[in-house]
Amino acid sequence: MSSTGSVADNVDVQMWRDITALPDDSYDNKTFSACFKGQTSNGEWTDLPSQTVSVYFQIMKLGGTTSSIPSIDVEKVSVDTTQAD
């Protein structure tokens, strides 16, 4: 993962539940930093609804700074649902 523009060493990511025609529900905000050192960053969101829902992730801060258009390049995102099993 690398940032575009200035050099950053972490990214804050918020997960949202997409609710049609209503305001979306937000879940915890997670800060990832290991990925900026060539390692794997992991985040775990808990207390999620048991039914299948549509979610999306939003960059809230990049390098500790809020930006109107933050951007990062991500090689791979995996979702592990084994905790829910």
Summarize the structure.
0% of the residues lie in helices and 32% in strands. The protein has no helices and five strands.
What is the spatial order of strands in the main beta sheet?
3-2-4
Helix and strand element order: EEEEE
Distance between the termini: 29 Å
**Total helix count?**
0
Number of strands: 5
| Share of helical residues | under 10%
| Major sheet | 3 strands, antiparallel
Mean pLDDT: 81
List low-confidence stretches.
Answer: none
Q: Tell me what portion of residues adopts beta-strand conformation.
A: 25-35%
Overall outline: globular
**What structural class do helix, strand and pairing data support?**
mainly beta
Which value, in Å, is the CA radius of gyration?
Answer: 14 Å
Q: What is the number of domains?
A: 1
Structure notes:
Strands 3-2-4 form a 3-stranded antiparallel beta sheet, with no helix packed on it. It has a two-stranded antiparallel ribbon with strand order 1-5. It is mainly beta and about 80 residues long. It has one domain (about 1-65). It contains no helices and 5 strands. A hairpin with a 7-residue loop joins β2 and β3.
Task: Give descriptors for this structure.
85 residues; mainly beta; two-stranded antiparallel sheet; 5 strands; 0% helix; globular
Secondary structure elements and their pairing?
Layout: E1 2-3, E2 11-17, E3 25-32, E4 55-62, E5 72-73
Antiparallel strand pairs: 1-5, 2-3, 2-4
